[in-house]
Specification:
Length: 272
Amino acid sequence: MESNSFFFDPSASHGNMFFLNPAVQGGRSMMNMEESSSKRRPFFCSHEDLYDDDYYDEQTPDKKRRLTTQQVHLLEKSFETENKLEPERKTQLAKKLGLQPRQVAVWFQNRRARWKTKQLERDFHLLKSTYDQLLSNYDSILKDNHLLRSEVTTLAEKLQAKEETSNEPPGQVPEANPHQQQQLDPVNMNQIEPPIKTEDRLSSGSTVLDEDAPQLLDCCDSYFPSIVPIHQPEEHNNNASDNHQSCLVDVFVPTTSPPHCHSESLGFWGWT
DNA sequence: TTGTGTTTTATTGCCTCC
DNA sequence: GGAGGCAATAAAACACAA
């Protein structure tokens, strides 16, 4: 198994000067000198040097190599239990896998990035379905409202017609009941229920929830502190390797830290 | 086989924390 | 100031259709 992490990259040439492992050229060192110096290739000054077969025969250039499935499996398992690496664990893993500690660290870094990307996707779908549900609830309530209003109008008209016919004999105009009038006057309906602005739809969501509508949860995986539907999509937790606590905890209730995260990593997980 | 898109590994630069 | 984290990115490796 190739264990050193540097590689030679002809495409990254600058004029005729070819560099190996830019990580050790200035800036922060990508691996310590003990790890790298013994394996570092000399600079090449020409293409002849670059493609010197003798060199490759005696020292196979380290190209970027994929980790074996066993290595990845072990790394994944380790990531599942704890997504950050303490130095000791990094060294142990590196020894166990026959990798440079730097490679293990890089793998965890990239793995966290992948997890975050996936989590953002999940959160997006979650928020979208929550919004769609709220919107559909609101729309159906709006429909009901219109229906009831037209019913009230019809009944008011009927009542008025009835009163007119019963009041036909002169001198018998009964006093109107102000309470009843207000209840049945369709003109005043807006006093009973003020219209909801479109932009208020989301914020009014909590008042229109029913059994099937999104509810608040306090223990959901998410990247954001935010709303989640009580009926979560099935795919939300179906990936064993991505079974980390998500950060999308409910929007109204203070959230708790995910079990796998250290306190110093809260920034990454989106908690404050 | 080859062109192209995706995934994985690695680097760089900047930021924060101690 | 050093160590370690993250975002952005490069580039190799891989997958796959044509």
